[in-house]
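Narrative of accomplishments. A recurring question from our advisory board has been how the design workflow behaves on a single, concrete structure rather than in aggregate. To address it, we present the structure tokens for one chain from the evaluation set, followed by the sequence designed for it. No filtering or post-editing was applied between the two.
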């Protein structure tokens, strides 16, 4: 099994929430974690276990709007639950290309839920792997009620897009 360490300065996570007024965008490049897999050429060897973890400090996920960011921090109770974590438990190929279905867990605000979604995996050289995916989540599944900020109503579905660049550890 080969371990790849996430390169924070080359990785990014975006969150898009919809509101009654306009979209709300949050993002961070403060991703940490790893991905473990065996690679054959440009494809993952799914006969071997595939695991991984990505974590972010919740306080580093920002919109650029202080009012939204304070409400986001309050709702997530970041003092009590400072980290958001995703765990990869298994992957299966969706086609003969680079698309995979990931099954895992997402932990947010002390609540862990089974999740699954599709990603693209690409080898970017001998020692670097790139993983990209997008998934819609309902924040109510994690015990969060959508916020109301002044006259602004935020809808419960959020779209999360992740781009991970990880390098082989030696």
């Amino acid at each position: 099994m080969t371990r790849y360490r996430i390169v924070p300065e080359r990785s990014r996570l975006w969150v898009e929430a919809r509101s009654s007024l306009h979209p709300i965008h949050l993002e961070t490049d403060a991703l940490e974690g790893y991905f473990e897999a065996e690679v054959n050429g440009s494809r993952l060897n799914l006969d071997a276990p595939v695991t991984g973890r990505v974590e972010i400090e919740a306080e580093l996920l920002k919109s650029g709007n202080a009012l939204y960011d304070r409400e986001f921090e309050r709702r997530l109770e970041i003092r009590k639950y400072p980290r958001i974590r995703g765990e990869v438990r298994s992957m299966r190929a969706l086609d003969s290309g680079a698309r995979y279905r990931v099954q895992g867990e997402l932990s947010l605000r002390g609540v862990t839920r089974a999740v699954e979604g599709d990603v693209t995996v690409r080898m970017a050289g001998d020692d670097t792997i790139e993983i990209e995916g997008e998934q819609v989540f309902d924040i109510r599944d994690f015990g969060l009620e959508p916020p109301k900020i002044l006259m602004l109503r935020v809808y419960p579905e959020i779209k999360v897009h992740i781009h991970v660049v990880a390098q082989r550890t030696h």
